[in-house]
Amino acid sequence: MKRKLLSLLFAVVICFSTAIPVCAEESLSRLEDNADLLTDSEETSLLSQLDNISEKQEMDIVVVTTDSLEGYTAQDYADDFFDYGGYGVGDNNDGLLLLVSIEDNDWHISTSGYAITAFTDAGREYMSEQFVPYLSDGEYYKAFSTYADLCDQFITQAKTDEPYDVGNLPKEPFKIWFNVLIALGIGFVFAIIVVLYMKSKLKSVRFQPAASSYVRNGSMNITQSGDFFLYSHLDRRERPKDNDSGGSSTHTSSSGSTHGGGGGKF
Fold first, then answer.
1. Which of 58-72, 126-140, 177-191 has the lowest mean pLDDT?
2. CA-CA distance, 260 to 120, in Å (whole number)?
3. In this structure, are residues 156 and 162 in contact, taking their beta carbons and an 8 Å threshold?
4. Most buried among 22, 65, 117, 151, by the most CB within 10 A?
5. What is the rounded radius of gyration, in angstroms, for the C-alpha atoms of the chain?
6. Each residue's pLDDT tens digit, 193-251
7. pLDDT (tens digit, 9 = 90+) per residue, 26-72?
8. Cα gap 184→190, rounded to integer Å
């Protein structure tokens, strides 16, 4: 009887010991809103979006907010949160993390593994132009959702073609001011047509291409004529060199891992 009880107890201990790592892995969240910038419903929606894209692309896409960087730089904080938080998929820890600190309005994207390739410096700069204005306006959910959608777009582009980079960035979205410019351009062209039509009705003296047209017949007798080349002038200007070769700049984090990325203020 004692032997059966000991065997049963041993089996229970084994079950619990094997279940602990699984629970720890499942508790890893791709959204850590420590600054409480989102409502409960927004957190649920955004986390679902991040999880779906991460599983689809086999790459961790993470959003972290904080009240304070605790004396660290935004880059170091983001890198360490990614590394020591256990994020990253596969042997190369593929993934990226967007950090937002409201202490001094800092944001930073840290890339790891294949994300360093997929998110070049030029591509990251383009991304920031899309979501940082929402951060500045306090529309945090819109900013994070836009970031997630862009991550999905950039990873797909890198896997199916070439990563977005210098000379190969997404086309700007159609904006309302473009409609205004088109309307102004049409009005300007129409105005020119009307003015030219009115001008064609005028009976003014017209410009003559040759000087002889201004000479009265018989008043001048030219015995000799010729063309003489006086001088020439040539400007030489050095063509500006494009020093931006594209790609991703990298650095080493405190854990010894290689990261790309960058950030700024909002």
1. 177-191
2. 8
3. no
4. 151
5. 33
6. 666 656 666 555 566 666 666 666 666 666 666 666 565 655 566 555 554 578 999 99
7. 468 999 999 999 999 999 999 999 999 999 999 999 999 999 999 99
8. 10
In order, the DSSP letters of 163-185 are -SBTTBPPPPPP-HHHHHHHHHH
What percent of the residues of the chain are helix, what percent strand, and what percent coil, each to the nearest 5? 45, 15, 40
Nearest to 46, CA basis, from 144, 113, 132, 193: 144
Residue showing tokens 């003014």: 204
* CA–CA gap between residue 250 and residue 254 (Å, rounded): 13
How large is the average pLDDT for residues 74-79? 98
128 burial via Cβ count (<10 Å: 0-12, 13-18, 19+): buried
In angstroms, the CA 75 to CA 247 distance is 19
Task: Show Cβ contacts of residue 46 under 8 Å, excluding neighbours closer than 6 positions.
Answer: 31, 38, 63, 141, 144, 145, 148
Q: Give residues with Cβ within 8 angstroms of 110, minimum separation 6.
A: 75, 78, 79, 81, 82, 96, 97, 99, 259, 260, 261
Tokens of 23: 């629970």
* Cα–Cα distance measured from residue 227 to residue 216, given in angstroms and rounded to the nearest whole number: 23
CB atoms within 10 A of CB 73: 12
